[in-house]
Request: fold
Amino acid sequence: MIKKSSRKWKIIGLSLLGIIILGISAFGYEYYQLQPKNHFTSVPVVGSGKTDDTNPTTEPVKVKEPVFNLLLIGSDQRKGQNVGHSDSMILLHVDLNKNKYHAVSIPRDTRVHLDGYGYTKLTSVQYIMQATKGPQKGVEAAVSAISNFMGVPINYYVETNYWGFQSMVDALGGINMDVPFDVKLTHPWYAENINNVISKGTHSIDGKMVTEVVHERYSLGNGEYGRQQLQEEALKGIAKKALDPSNITKLPSLVKSIPEFILATNMSTSDMLSLGLSAKDFDPKTQLEYKQIYGSGKKLYDDILKAHNYQLVIDQKQVEDIAVNFQ
Reply:
């Protein structure tokens, strides 16, 4: 009896050991596959950067290094609506070999040409295409317009709105944000915040207040460009919190909750995990270079709105100089 019992427990022990080994092997293989050099061996191309490209969405292309361009779109789409304007746009050049990132804010009022419609503001491209051809065509048109404007390919995109932005920050338990100047909330989402002032300095704030801060532009001395700076600082705060070594183990659950605050993306869960794991210990002071694009504000005819409105005319030489870092 003793021998049989001993044999039984030996078999159970070996079985458990086998399960553990298989589990570790599976985890090891998954972790190996998530390493950027193994994961990002091919990338999609949503915008080719060529103005004469009539079909910007192409098959994935093979890449030698984990280097790609990612477009972040903030929409003003309200709850319960199916259309919105591209209210904020930041293009990121991601080099996961060097852990270096270049970022540029694309002004929402940039004058662009939309095939079949004529000249309009960049912010209106997504809205009109969503209204006429649906959400997916809308976001692809916005990506293509920015790709053509910058003259560089865009591989990935992530679109959220202000409510999604709020949920994202709350999912992280709030962030620390460096506010570069005093911000008076003249057009808040929440009535109780009207005319509140967030003073210059570092603040620990929740999703609701982050949403208010990155939305404000009317009270700022440099308007839209000031808002772009606030958005940059908010994104830094999010990245630093999400990629803090103590939070890396929480990254998979955070990524799984992303559908709750993302309107559209062509990044898979494994794409996001690979990007997040590779960017741990992110330090924006040494790893991120941020640029803004300036232009001349003019009142010009908008072929979509059939009226004159404020549009920003950009010097193409300035764009070309910035785009060198996104090739």
